[in-house]
Design goal:
The protein is an all-alpha fold. It has ten helices and no strands. It starts with a helix and ends in a 24-residue tail after the last helix. The relative contact order is 0.09.
């Protein structure tokens, strides 16, 4: 094979000026004459490509493990900000943050780490994160007080049980009172959400 390579390489060949021919020479040296193999080259070749394969396999395995064992998505900062902005292009982001703070701050959940999307049902969040049904009712009382709403009178109990955060946000933005001048006593409420699963 080396004789074949010599036949196709011109006499004025240099490695610097003809990189393609240089690669041909390298492979001719790798295979060697018929019946002879350069085992040191074979070993280096296998080790190099084997190392690349191990690195790629390790990256793929770690990615799969991370997707399976990563922390709940609710605790990834700003992970749903785009969802809120896409759905409520007209909304000021401070209003969205304000609702989440009123909703969750009193429950000991750091507002800067909250990441709930507008499509998430309030009842499902309550079942997972609140200790009892009374905490959920207190939460809605805070919403009523802050935004001047009367949830028990405005919507049915069934709607409250299926309401999403986005729907609640829409209610707060269409209410007549967004910023009450002073704290008022919480209005009475007759609604209740399902008790969380033990």
């Amino acid at each position: 094979m080396q004789d074949m390579v010599r036949d196709i390489i011109p006499e004025n060949f240099t490695m610097d000026s003809q990189p393609l021919y240089g690669e041909i020479v390298m492979w001719a040296h790798f295979f060697g004459p018929p019946g002879q193999v350069h085992w040191d080259c074979v070993i280096r070749f296998c080790l190099f490509h084997g190392a690349i394969a191990v690195v790629l396999a390790s990256i793929a395995a770690y990615t799969a493990w991370w997707d399976k064992h990563r922390a709940p998505r609710h605790y990834f900062p700003q992970c749903t900000g785009k969802l809120w902005r896409r759905r409520y292009r007209w909304a000021v982001k401070q209003r969205i943050r304000e609702l989440l703070r009123v909703f969750f701050d009193d429950e000991g959940m750091a507002s800067q780490r909250l990441c709930f999307g507008p499509e998430e049902a309030i009842a499902a969040i309550a079942d997972k994160h609140f200790a009892d049904a009374m905490a959920v009712e207190d939460l809605f009382l805070r919403i009523e007080e802050r935004y001047g709403l009367s949830l028990a009178n405005d919507i049915s109990n069934t709607q409250l049980q299926t309401m999403t955060l986005g729907e609640l946000f829409e209610l707060t933005q269409t209410s007549r009172i967004h910023y009450p001048p002073a704290r008022r006593s919480a209005p009475s409420s007759s609604f209740s959400l399902p008790s969380p699963a033990p």
